[in-house]
Automatic annotation (TrEMBL):
This is Ribosomal protein S18 acetylase RimI-like enzyme. Residues 1-153 form the N-acetyltransferase domain. Signal peptide: none annotated. It comes from the Bacteria. The lineage of its organism: Bacteria, Bacillati, Actinomycetota, Actinomycetes, Streptosporangiales.
Length: 157
């Protein structure tokens, strides 16, 4: 597996992986109109142009992606996705770790996920993310906001 910066030419493949990855979330929450499923190709292209977007490749195929948008000293993490046939192999961990390294100026990384998304919460907590707040969106969804502050005081290997 190779992780590298995405280009606008990758937008279609990233959107395909994103939609495949978020189907289970839509089913979990009973909502087929969640933002990752209705985002357009043009919107993905614009994000790639204006943010740090990393892709994971396996034999030339995009199998995962993650976005990071720097806002002040914080990196807002979004759309961590892994193709369903590659989930559970450490790709999400590798993508998040690579994002942390790609944005060394960030003093914190913020993200959110739904309250029923146990696998996501387990991954984020394992990587040092801690809950900062909960936001009730409606009867079937509460967003859990998490933050990770990297320890940059130690020398990097």
């Amino acid at each position: 597996m190779l992780i590298e910066r995405a280009t606008t030419a990758d937008a279609g493949e990233i959107l395909t992986v994103q939609r495949a990855a978020y189907v289970s979330e839509a089913q979990l929450y009973g909502d087929p109109y969640i933002p990752p499923l209705i985002e357009s190709l043009e919107q993905v292209r614009k994000v790639i142009e204006g943010a740090v977007v990393l892709k994971a490749l396996d034999a030339g195929r995009v199998i995962g992606a993650v976005r990071g948008q720097v806002s002040g000293t914080t990196c807002l993490v979004g759309r961590l996705v892994v193709a369903p046939d590659h989930q559970g192999r450490g790709i999400g961990t590798a993508l998040l770790t690579a994002l942390h390294e790609a944005v060394p100026e960030a003093e914190a990384f913020d993200l959110f996920t739904g309250h029923l998304s146990e696998a996501n919460l387990k991954l984020y907590r394992r990587l040092g993310y801690r809950e900062t707040s909960r936001e009730r969106m409606d009867d079937h969804l509460t967003l859990i906001h998490l933050r990770m502050r990297p320890d940059r005081s130690l020398p990097q290997p």
